[in-house]
Amino acid sequence: MPTTNEHLKEAFSGESQANQKYRAFAKQAEKEGFTNIAKLFRTTAEAERIHAEGHLKALDMIANTADNLQAAIDGETYEFTEMYPPMLEQALSDDHKAKRMFKFAVDAEEVHAQIYSKALEAVKAGKDMDVSDFYLCPICGYIELGSAPDECPVCGAKSKVFCQIG
Amino acid sequence: MPTTNEHLKEAFSGESQANQKYRAFAKQAEKEGFTNIAKLFRTTAEAERIHAEGHLKALDMIANTADNLQAAIDGETYEFTEMYPPMLEQALSDDHKAKRMFKFAVDAEEVHAQIYSKALEAVKAGKDMDVSDFYLCPICGYIELGSAPDECPVCGAKSKVFCQIG
Ligand SMILES: [Fe+2]
Ligand SMILES: [Fe+2]
Ligand SMILES: [Fe+2]
Ligand SMILES: [Fe+2]
Ligand SMILES: [Fe+2]
Ligand SMILES: [Fe+2]
């Protein structure tokens, strides 16, 4: 019999995945011209985010920002050192289409870990980061500080596709 | 040795959860006055959403809207009939704080399934839903069509807290 903490982890995982699925389904509905159904998917995605956040709080997994950054660094490090390398290797040997995003992710996560480490240094020094512009590559998830690069070092996308998240 | 499809499911789960964590961490950073770090968390959350979407595509889990709605109905039905009831029961017997969101979720998911069923009827009749206003309760994830209720039937929140997702 699982404990309530184990239940919370399972429910958090389920709600997080439902949120992502509904956001992707909303885009598909939009493409097919179902504008209202797309809005329904986005609204329900937000409902699942509320459930996910509630479970995360009940797990006491939202700490202070220094601890949150450390948890984020640990998660990113696990992904780029342990999780993704064997996944990429196998997808390459299968020649599975998964290899593309596995490769982008393994490279992007390493950069995420580095940037979170800079953020943690700032917090340990009692201040916010001094950078306020974060440029995201919408193809691979690479992030650059300050200004967009001429070309994405992970996927090769051009400067003009980079975006900022408000 | 897991298959690439099993790897994709694991990676989709991990990315979906990272997205939710970073969004929650962003709110916490904002509360502590770390405006730039909050923006970094939101930007990285979006990077993880890109990874999650890529994995979902590689899993061929984004179908046409009729099939997506059926998958959504199946997921919601699993949650309110099988997943949440024993979780809620145990959290109640533990008197664990998880009981609050488990109760909200089990009730909200049943409503989500009903609304998705209406959407599927419309799609099967070759049209979009005729409703374009979806009111979300930001406390429990309940959704009402057309206009906000006087009081949320799931959590009791007042009409004025209901919001619409664009
Ligand atoms: Fe949910
Ligand atoms: Fe990452
Ligand atoms: Fe890129
Ligand atoms: Fe990622
Ligand atoms: Fe739901
Ligand atoms: Fe509610």
Automatic annotation (TrEMBL), chains A, B:
Positions of the Ferritin-like diiron domain: 1-127
Keyword Ion transport (UniProt): no
GO MF annotation list: iron ion binding; oxidoreductase activity
Matching Pfam families: Rubrerythrin, RUBY_RBDX
Domain Rubredoxin-like: 132-165
Record InterPro entries: Ferritin-like (IPR012347), Ferritin-like_diiron (IPR009040), Ferritin-like_SF (IPR009078), Rbr2/Nigerythrin (IPR052753), Rr_diiron-bd_dom (IPR003251), Rubredoxin-like_dom (IPR024934), RUBY_RBDX (IPR048574)
Keywords, sorted A to Z: Electron transport, Transport
Top-level taxon: Bacteria
Name the UniProt record assigns to this protein: Rubrerythrin
